[in-house]
């Protein structure tokens, strides 16, 4: 397990102190820490609980086409349309997959409405953690527990077990997010009618099967930022039928074109799990 005992939190200044600019992504199926460019100010929709933290200049965020708000820290709840911008476009973005946490036990700032959060101590902790990652050079086999302790100083409480059939399918999709699982095939595997399966999935996971599967596929692109700049290859390797669908998904999730996404990731350092190529579940 990663030892965070060396992370020393400095007293909170008027403005958090900022480390040198480096780009990283720490990723597994439950969490993401990304430090890098945020792309264009287009609307994006992601299935994670999102934390945006300024690493340089303040960020500006608009929730669901609302007014722009300036802040060092913002939280966006899953599937909430939003736009974000920063003058130098370098921010930290943290993803928490909602099916991996007991929502009622989350820290108050993660349960807040989407938008600005005033918590300078947490901002400084994230900035300090980012600076430490800059110094580390590598993180071997990062675990969810390591992530939580490193960034939050506590383990986020996991939810009660899902209904067994739904739990099995959720794990299969997370392990192979590029697969071609359909509601029909998953219902058959579960011994349920399609309508009953879709109802049970939404009631258990809190989101529709289609939205869950689409988000996990879009999220899987984060594992492949260093793979290739051949869009057709990337589209097929992430389970999209063609480059057009792939490009639309990238724009919706990441707020930038595939070309800009992969160009901006050329100097990124990646820590985390690999995922398999797509195959039918």
Automatic annotation (TrEMBL):
GO terms for molecular function: DNA-binding transcription factor activity; sequence-specific DNA binding. Residues 164-264 form the HTH araC/xylS-type domain. Pfam families: HTH_18. Signal peptide: none annotated. SMART domains: HTH_ARAC. It comes from the Bacteria. Keywords: DNA-binding. InterPro entries: HTH_AraC. Residues 1-20 are annotated as: Disordered. This is AraC-like DNA-binding protein.
